[in-house]
């Protein structure tokens, strides 16, 4: 999870580096410029690698164009949800024929592409994250409903083409509460390291890292919220989507953020103050010393943005790499 604020896309990395060199400076004094540019470029090209099915590209490009470019790539946003839909559907190599459903944006859309998105996520929840089948299906159903809304499609019409018996909120919430607890025992949680912008995960997905300054619980409007459990769920979902579909970080984050919101609602956590809290925390981290960063931390989210502040953060993190078991010990 990174700071909820605007950042420069990684596509600007090379231009920025060249400008720094021409000005007589360096982008990363501690590491070679070529090595760092390669790392940023590699992350920027994630969605161009792997299996790609272009069948629905035109439909989804039209749909994306109906929404403004988000001011913040790390907040809940319909354009980013459509972007996640696009890359997840593009990974599917077999897509059945399906009827068209009308959209308020004027262009009919194949119902099958939304169903494929839902089915792909359901498999990730059930197989990769080992959620119970009922929970996986209910969670995928609710994300499908959000995509249907983002596509400008009437859900009743969609449901005639793709029959669903979606779990209502009263039945969904107990499933999510149970899942939230279960997810904490499926991974090691390390909250003794320095993790810029709140939390992250190891390269092998076996560890979720949470910054040492983040409280394990916190009250919002008088409600005690299990912060660690919600962050753990967010990071596990984000890493799974990132790995399974080779998405960009913002698209994986978009799915994880929506799952986190559903889970927060299930335990009665007030979403607005809870979500706003992370901007305050992340901003405070900008001036916080970075002394012990686990060497196996997945750097994909940090290499996604190429603005000068993000680049300096990456440099500071690399200088502070330590073995994970060293975190929390005297500097």
Low-confidence stretches: 4-29
Widest sheet: strand ordering: 3-5-4
Total helices: the number is 12
- Which outline best applies? globular
Whole-Å distance between the termini? 25 Å
Helix content: 40-55%
Number of separate strands: 9
Query: What Rg is obtained from the alpha carbons, in whole angstroms?
Result: 20 Å
**How many structural domains does the protein architecture include?**
2
Sheet having the most strands: 3 strands, mixed
Based on the structure, what is the oligomeric state of the protein chains? single chain
Mean pLDDT over all positions: 89
Structural class: mainly alpha
| Percent of sequence in beta strands | 5-15%
Query: Helices and strands, in N-to-C order?
Result: HHHHEEHHHHEEEEEHHHEHE
Structure description:
The chain is mainly alpha-helical and 331 residues long. The protein folds into two domains: 10-48 and 181-326, no CATH class; 57-167, no CATH class. Helix content is 50%, strand content 8%. It contains twelve helices and nine strands. The protein has helices spanning 13-22, 33-44, 57-65, 78-91, 111-128, 133-150, 155-161, 169-183, 227-245, 249-266, 271-285, 308-319; strands spanning 100-101, 109-110, 188-193, 199-201, 207-211, 218-220, 223-225, 293-294, 321-322. The strands form four sheets. A three-stranded mixed β-sheet has the order 3-5-4. It has a two-stranded antiparallel sheet with strand order 1-2. The protein has a two-stranded antiparallel sheet with strand order 6-7. A hairpin with a 2-residue loop joins strand 6 (218-220) and strand 7. Helix 5 runs antiparallel to helix 6 (133-150). The radius of gyration is 20 Å and the shape is globular. The protein starts with 12 loop residues before the first helix and ends in a 9-residue tail after the last strand.
């Amino acid at each position: 999870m990174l700071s909820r604020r605007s950042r420069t896309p990684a596509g600007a990395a090379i231009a920025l580096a060249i400008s720094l060199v021409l000005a007589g400076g360096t982008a990363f004094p501690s590491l070679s410029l070529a090595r760092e540019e390669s790392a940023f470029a590699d992350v920027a090209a994630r969605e161009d690698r792997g299996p790609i099915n272009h069948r629905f590209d035109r439909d989804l490009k039209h749909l994306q164009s109906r929404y403004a470019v988000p001011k913040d790539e790390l907040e809940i946003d319909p354009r980013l949800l459509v972007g996640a839909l696009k890359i997840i559907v593009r990974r599917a190599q077999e897509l059945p024929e399906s009827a068209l459903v009308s959209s308020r944006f004027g262009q009919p859309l194949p119902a099958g592409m939304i169903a494929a998105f839902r089915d792909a996520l359901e498999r990730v929840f059930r197989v990769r994250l080992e959620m119970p089948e009922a929970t996986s299906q209910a969670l995928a159903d609710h994300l499908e409903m959000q995509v249907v809304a983002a596509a400008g499609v009437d859900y009743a019409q969609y449901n005639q083409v793709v029959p669903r018996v979606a779990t209502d909120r009263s039945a969904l919430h107990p499933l999510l509460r149970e899942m939230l607890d279960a997810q904490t025992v499926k991974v090691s949680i390390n909250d003794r390291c320095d993790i810029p912008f709140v939390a992250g995960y190891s390269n092998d997905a076996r560890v979720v890292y949470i910054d040492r300054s983040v409280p394990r619980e916190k009250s919002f409007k008088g409600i005690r919220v299990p912060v660690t459990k919600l962050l753990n769920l967010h990071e596990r979902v984000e890493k799974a989507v990132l790995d399974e579909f080779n998405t960009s970080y913002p698209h994986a984050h978009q799915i994880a953020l929506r799952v986190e919101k559903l889970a927060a609602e299930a335990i009665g956590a007030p979403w607005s103050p809870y979500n706003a809290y992370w901007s305050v925390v992340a901003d405070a981290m900008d001036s916080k010393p970075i002394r012990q960063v686990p060497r196996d931390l997945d750097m994909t989210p940090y290499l996604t943005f190429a603005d000068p502040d993000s680049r300096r953060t990456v440099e500071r993190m690399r200088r502070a790499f330590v073995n994970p078991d060293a975190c929390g010990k005297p500097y």
